Amino acid sequence: MSSMPHRLFRLLTVVWVGSLLTIGYAVAPVLFTSLDRMTAGAVAAQLFRIEGMIGVVCGVLLLALCNVLIRRGGDAYRRLRWLIAGMLVCVLFGYFALQPFMNALRIAAQEAGTDVGHSVYASRFGMLHGVSSVFYLIESLLGIVLAWKLPAGANLAAEQGARRVAGRTAG
């Protein structure tokens, strides 16, 4: 089995999980301790929007690569496919279901001349933010498990696949 799909799989995993952890657990907290809440919220929203797009692109590509690698005998990628699917569900729900509502509330508050935290939308925004945070946490935990369970190497995955095929033909 060519090592290129395996290497691309690792690269996409590192990009997705690395950006997910960096933006959510390093950059966003620093923004809120360094800037006023309104500015920090606006910058964080932009960063999470970018993270959402990274997640969608990497997730779709990783699922496609999983299928290619499984067809080439990489059985280790079968389990990973479910982790990626779970991460993709989290990012799609957060990006396409929750974020539009949160942004609409933020814009409505700004048009009323205040930030969302001091507006009539504060409780609704807080609830959506809490749900979004739970999905982000689940996506992050799945990402850590994905990175942890990555096959040791392309050659190892190929050897495991060859053993599996040999076992089927011998039995």
UniProtKB/TrEMBL annotation:
<feature type="transmembrane region" description="Helical">
    <location>
        <begin position="127"/>
        <end position="148"/>
    </location>
</feature>
<feature type="transmembrane region" description="Helical">
    <location>
        <begin position="82"/>
        <end position="98"/>
    </location>
</feature>
<dbReference type="InterPro" id="IPR025423">
    <property type="entry name" value="TMEM205-like"/>
</dbReference>
<keyword id="KW-0812">Transmembrane</keyword>
<keyword id="KW-0472">Membrane</keyword>
<protein>
    <recommendedName>
        <fullName>TMEM205-like domain-containing protein</fullName>
    </recommendedName>
</protein>
<dbReference type="Pfam" id="PF13664">
    <property type="entry name" value="DUF4149"/>
</dbReference>
<feature type="transmembrane region" description="Helical">
    <location>
        <begin position="50"/>
        <end position="70"/>
    </location>
</feature>
<feature type="domain" description="TMEM205-like">
    <location>
        <begin position="11"/>
        <end position="107"/>
    </location>
</feature>
<dbReference type="GO" id="GO:0016020">
    <property type="term" value="C:membrane"/>
</dbReference>
<keyword id="KW-1133">Transmembrane helix</keyword>
